[in-house]
Amino acid sequence: MATLKDISNLEDIKLMVNTFYDNVRKDDLLGPIFNDKLQDRWSEHLEKMYGFWQTILFDVRAYSGSPFPPHKQLPVDKTHFDRWIQIFNTTIDKQFSGTITEEAKMRATNMAFMFNHKIEYFRNPENQ
Ligand code: HEM
Fold first, then answer.
1. Can you name the CATH fold of 10-127?
2. HSE-CB for 110 with a 13 A CA cutoff
3. Which of 16, 33, 50, 71 to mutate to test the pocket of ligand 1 (most atoms within 8 A of CB)?
4. From atom 9 of ligand 1, which residue's Cα is the shortest distance away?
5. If you take atom 18 of ligand 1, which residue's CA is the nearest one?
6. Name one GO molecular function term (predicted).
7. CB neighbour list of residue 48: distance below 8 Å, 6 or more residues apart
8. What is the reported pLDDT for 80?
9. Which of 4, 102, 108 is nearest to 53 (CA)?
10. How far apart are alpha carbons 33 and 39 in whole angstroms?
11. At what angle do helices 31-38 and 10-26 cross, to 10 degrees?
């Protein structure tokens, strides 16, 4: 099998993000949640995610938002975050390999864990 290259530039990030969200859209658990929320704003979302990953992986100031708030009210729990990570890791492992690729998977896993933790926290009436 040919050796896969590492994620190295914006083109790689676009490929990673586009393929990941193509797979997410086809997924019966996650697809409807994204489609309901984004409707005709998919291209805007993808552009935002190119910037987000550039900032995370290459330290480029392309994204300056707050990642968590848009997730706070979504109808999701640990099952959804586990699926998100499963699709992310499978997608990325088919296309890339190397240090930055491992960094991307680690950062995504940490954020999924943190988002889920915060959602559970805010769902508890005592913490609202
Ligand atoms: C169950 C898993 C997830 C679901 C269903 C989900 C869904 C969404 C949706 C629907 C949006 C668009 C919100 C809007 O524009 O109205 C969004 C934005 C975003 N998501 Fe997720 N997401 C999930 C997990 C993650 C994870 C693990 C990360 C981090 C790697 C992430 C990073 C982001 C970022 C950076 C944005 C853009 C936030 C902004 O508007 O500045 N998401 N997500």
1. Globin-like (1.10.490)
2. 7
3. 71
4. 34
5. 70
6. heme binding
7. 63, 65
8. 98
9. 108
10. 10
11. 110
Q: Ligand 1 centroid to 10 CA: how many Å?
A: 20
Do residues 17 and 53 make contact, with C-beta atoms less than 8 angstroms apart? yes
Q: Could you report the predicted ipTM of this complex, rounded to two decimals?
A: 0.98
Nearest Cα residue to atom 2 of ligand 1 = 81
32 lines ligand 1 (CB under 6 A): no
Give the tokens for residue 62: 């392309």
Domain definitions of the chain by residue range: 10-127
End-to-end Cα spacing for the chain: 52
Q: State pLDDT tens for residues 30-79.
A: 999 999 999 999 999 999 999 999 999 999 999 999 999 999 999 999 99
Q: Which atom of ligand 1 is nearest to the CA of 49?
A: 35
Q: Whose CA is nearest to atom 38 of ligand 1?
A: 67
